[in-house]
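agent: user wants the full assembly modeled, not chains individually. Plan: 1) parse entity lines 2) check alphabet per entity 3) run joint structure prediction 4) return tokens. Steps 1-2 passed, four entities, 1156 residues total. Proceeding.
--- entities ---
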Amino acid sequence: MSEPFRPAGEGVRTRLFQIIFESDTPLAKGFDIVLIAVILVSVLVVMLDSVAAWHAAYGELFYWLEWGFTIVFTIELALRIYVLDKPLRYLRSFYGIVDVIAVLPTWLMLLFPGTQTLVIVRLLRVLRIFRVLRLMRFVGESRLLLDALRRSVRQIFLFFFGIFMLVIIFATVMYTIESPEDGFTSIPMSIYWAIVSLTTVGYGDIVPMTSIGKAITVMLMLIGYSIIAVPTGVFSAEVIRSIRADRYSDQACPGCGHDRHEKRARYCLKCGTWLDEETPDPNRASEKG
Amino acid sequence: MSEPFRPAGEGVRTRLFQIIFESDTPLAKGFDIVLIAVILVSVLVVMLDSVAAWHAAYGELFYWLEWGFTIVFTIELALRIYVLDKPLRYLRSFYGIVDVIAVLPTWLMLLFPGTQTLVIVRLLRVLRIFRVLRLMRFVGESRLLLDALRRSVRQIFLFFFGIFMLVIIFATVMYTIESPEDGFTSIPMSIYWAIVSLTTVGYGDIVPMTSIGKAITVMLMLIGYSIIAVPTGVFSAEVIRSIRADRYSDQACPGCGHDRHEKRARYCLKCGTWLDEETPDPNRASEKG
Amino acid sequence: MSEPFRPAGEGVRTRLFQIIFESDTPLAKGFDIVLIAVILVSVLVVMLDSVAAWHAAYGELFYWLEWGFTIVFTIELALRIYVLDKPLRYLRSFYGIVDVIAVLPTWLMLLFPGTQTLVIVRLLRVLRIFRVLRLMRFVGESRLLLDALRRSVRQIFLFFFGIFMLVIIFATVMYTIESPEDGFTSIPMSIYWAIVSLTTVGYGDIVPMTSIGKAITVMLMLIGYSIIAVPTGVFSAEVIRSIRADRYSDQACPGCGHDRHEKRARYCLKCGTWLDEETPDPNRASEKG
Amino acid sequence: MSEPFRPAGEGVRTRLFQIIFESDTPLAKGFDIVLIAVILVSVLVVMLDSVAAWHAAYGELFYWLEWGFTIVFTIELALRIYVLDKPLRYLRSFYGIVDVIAVLPTWLMLLFPGTQTLVIVRLLRVLRIFRVLRLMRFVGESRLLLDALRRSVRQIFLFFFGIFMLVIIFATVMYTIESPEDGFTSIPMSIYWAIVSLTTVGYGDIVPMTSIGKAITVMLMLIGYSIIAVPTGVFSAEVIRSIRADRYSDQACPGCGHDRHEKRARYCLKCGTWLDEETPDPNRASEKG
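--- prediction returned ---
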């Protein structure tokens, strides 16, 4: 994650910036780890508070814990705004919005008593989980995965487009064949059924009742069962390509500047220049001799 | 998609042809995009109209929208026929048939009042979705996927043949073991159950009741769970082959015989020899001069 | 399929042998295709006859059709025995047993009236489907698949052994936690549930009821969902290896007899002998000069 | 499995050590096989004893069989302790703990009558199955699999982290939308539902009832259906890498620099140069002589 909001000044702000936004120093790493732990615990508290039995037993504790988390996150947010030179740009970025959402519900509760009971408030609080995405900074492997995903995205789009058409056709056919009493009340409902079947989830809340409907379902299930090979195959191929791309060096050719050679290449594949600048070119040597 | 129906003439017809059938000019691209949007909206309207609540609230609106789409598609179809030299060949092609089906149901409704209520009419209207396949023109990646599919088709056929035999045997055994009261009323019904289980869909509308039936089901589920590796493995291997075939030429270096160069290579990466034997090496040329 | 039962004689027997057991001549191919069609139709008849409504309507027709198939298969079996020199070896082979089972039930019915009503008879008749395996002769691709399967079999065995242990542990834990009223009546029943869950079939006939049971189920489902990557990965790798094995020629080295060289190899990797016997070895040539 | 507990002495203890802990001699192999068989049978007995009907019929037999197994395992454990120099280190190792657990429940039953009826006792007995892991010694292939798993573990962790976030967000949204009467009683319960849906298990015990809930479910199911490509792709790539790393050396040919030889290659497949620089080329040697 690049942070384009570095403070120009020095002293306390700069040091705070390094702790909060970077992760090179032990202090900064410690800050990150504590923050992630607090976020996870705060999400856990929201989740447990939604269980009736837990709410009855520990509702008050959860209430005060929530206030504790909110105050911690608010101080953290204030510090983030303080150390940045362009805090508005930060607040409009993805992480900025998530950081604000993390504290908003509890403060709103103070302004508008009664909102506490709204379930939507819980939803907003759970969005805090996105703050953990900062963790990705630590994990270099994500680059390889994202690389492979990016390169397979167009083929995966094609795959979903094909599924989309399959599902519409199968759903309409089943809507025509099966009776509304058995759950096929409309085409959108049939589409729900078709996706439940194609993805092999198979809840069983809507199932075909007629023989012809069962025969069509068999086709849909076999398609869903085997078509999964397509995104898997495409993605496997791209991961293999990504791993292999490690075989390429970034070294630019001193002759033409071409910068994608296999690591074992000795001559530039574009202009034939000898790539290893530290040893002489055996071809030229023999020409001289 | 090749369009073998080009008009021989010039002027308005040729220009209309370029707009409707091709997609190189901005106008032609705009036409394609508008058309796809109209098709998707018209399919959406058919789907929403099948929901009782929506039909009650907006049935009349949907009725007139449907007439609007039909008139637009009819004008478009008329233009297509007008600009082509061999309109009959077009009407017998896949896209021609789909284009006619896209407008037929509504016009039939005018001729035979009362057909509106037939669900089959809805099915015909949804087939319009196939018109969107023209979109594929834009997506070059589909070639790679189709290539890999074509090469794995015989092995996937073998896979389905194996599944077919497995399912028949398991279904007959279960029909022999389980009682008809639990849903195993006939061998075809058992086959439906076997495919629901093998594909890991598992609706749960028919489940084994006896201990021996459960033991056999366990085997079937484990087979279904692991056998999916077969089409996935075959297709992955073919995608990898397609990607690689795209990148490397088989041409051997005239200098050292190294025979695995990227297609874009102009010099051998092993010995620096100029690979294109038909044109002179610019390096050597400049040396001479 | 090798047929080690060739007749030593000539004339009619040999010609019949070629038609029945081989598939090089047009007549032999036609025989194979007709036979496969008859087998498939006969299996279809058994399946349809098990449907109450079809049995009521066409029971008699199916009865006489069954006699027709049995007579055809009996004549075919008699011919097979006639043309072979070692018919007993044939009758003890897999295909021999299947061929006998294909005709046995109907003849037994004649001897013991009343067996017709036994469902087991139907099961025996359906086993005819195995006769279609002779079709595999036509499909060269099966070799590649079987090759890859054979090489991954030990790792797939390891995978199943791991699943087996996982399932036993999870099943026993769930049997301890959940109550028998909810379906977890015994450890074998829990194993059935665990496999239904791990393979992602999910019938829903037995589901966890307690919170702790649901938490454990979540773990089991996530394991089942992701562990499928293991056989898929192993098999994909083996298919890729099989395809690549096509890159190897069978040509033996004239020097040392080593017979597995990459097709592009020019020197034996074992003894350094020049492999292309039609052109001179450039190394030796330069030595002479 | 390395056994760092070898006895220093000789004679009977050393010979017993070789039989019990190693598997090179026929006697040691026989011991292993008999032991594995006894373990499997003892686990089977525990499982069958949990079935009410079997317990009623054979409960007493199972009781005495259990005592038999316990005595056999106790003698075996005593021998293991006897032959080792550092038995305490063994008893604190994974296999030592499992070995103790294998005999503990039955002896405890003697001390505290009535524990027999506790289901937890059964659980402890089933843990004996872990003893079979010693079998892994025989299977060399496990190294390759574990290698590939180890290298993909960080990416699989990333994958599970992504799933974890997806599930929390979807579960909270559905908890907000759906009513508690339909099973979405709390966020943890919604998480259970979300994992049942994402992993495509689909029990059907909790299903969405509202239209908007069904639409969100459709998204979740499609994500679950296609995202499985990620661990599969990563693991496939790693298995392929493991297999390949097994076959090719990185050593470059001293003659032409070709750097991709099979490990068993002794001469360069491009230029015929002797690859092993430490020993003389037998061909050249014979030429000199």
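agent: reporting back. Chain A touches chain D through 56 residues (CB under 8 Å). The CA atoms of residues 46 and 122 of chain A lie 7 Å apart.
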